């Protein structure tokens, strides 16, 4: 019975490590996406406190293209997750 508990603990630890790794990956992917689209779409001099229509459209297109490209590369590499 004790061996079974040890096996369960190892399994739980591995699951937690995988979940932690996946969360870190997703945060890094989101941060990369945010930086790329912000640098591309937002003017360096802020004129208004909210995004204008052009900036909103640019960000929408940028995010869409980013996801399409990363998913395509992921499929070409045979991975279930897109590369960074």
What does this structure look like?
- With 84 residues, the protein is mainly α.
- The protein has two helices and no strands.
- It has a single domain (2-77), classed as Orthogonal Bundle (Helix Hairpins), CATH 1.10.287.810.
- Helix 1 crosses helix 2.
- The longest helix has 40 residues, at 2-41.
- 1% of the residues are buried.
Question: What is the fold's blueprint, element by element?
Answer:
Elements: H1 2-41, H2 53-77
Compact summary:
With 84 residues, the protein is an all-alpha fold. It has a single domain (2-77), classed as Helix Hairpins, CATH 1.10.287.
Head-to-tail CA distance between termini: 43 Å
Tally of individual helices: 2
By CATH, the architecture is named: Orthogonal Bundle
CATH homologous superfamily label: Mitochondrial import inner membrane translocase subunit tim13 like domains
Order of helices and strands: HH
Main beta-sheet strand count, sense and barrel state: none
Structural class: mainly alpha
Q: Kindly state the number of beta strands.
A: 0
CATH class: Mainly Alpha
Query: What is the third-level CATH name, the topology?
Result: Helix Hairpins
List the uncertain runs: none
- Number of individual domains: 1
Average pLDDT, rounded to a whole number, is 84
Please report which band the strand proportion falls in: under 5%, 5-15%, 15-25%, 25-35%, 35-45% or over 45%.
under 5%
Question: What is the CA-based Rg, rounded?
Answer: 20 Å
Share of helix among residues?
Answer: over 70%
**Shape designation:** elongated
């Amino acid at each position: 019975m004790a061996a079974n508990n040890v096996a369960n603990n190892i399994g739980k630890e591995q699951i937690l490590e995988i979940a932690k790794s996946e969360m870190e990956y997703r945060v890094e992917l989101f941060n990369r996406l945010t930086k790329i689209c912000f640098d591309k779409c937002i003017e360096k001099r802020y004129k208004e406190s909210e995004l204008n229509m052009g900036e909103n459209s640019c960000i929408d297109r940028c995010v869409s293209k980013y996801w399409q490209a990363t998913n395509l590369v992921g499929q070409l590499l045979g991975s279930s997750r897109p590369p960074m």
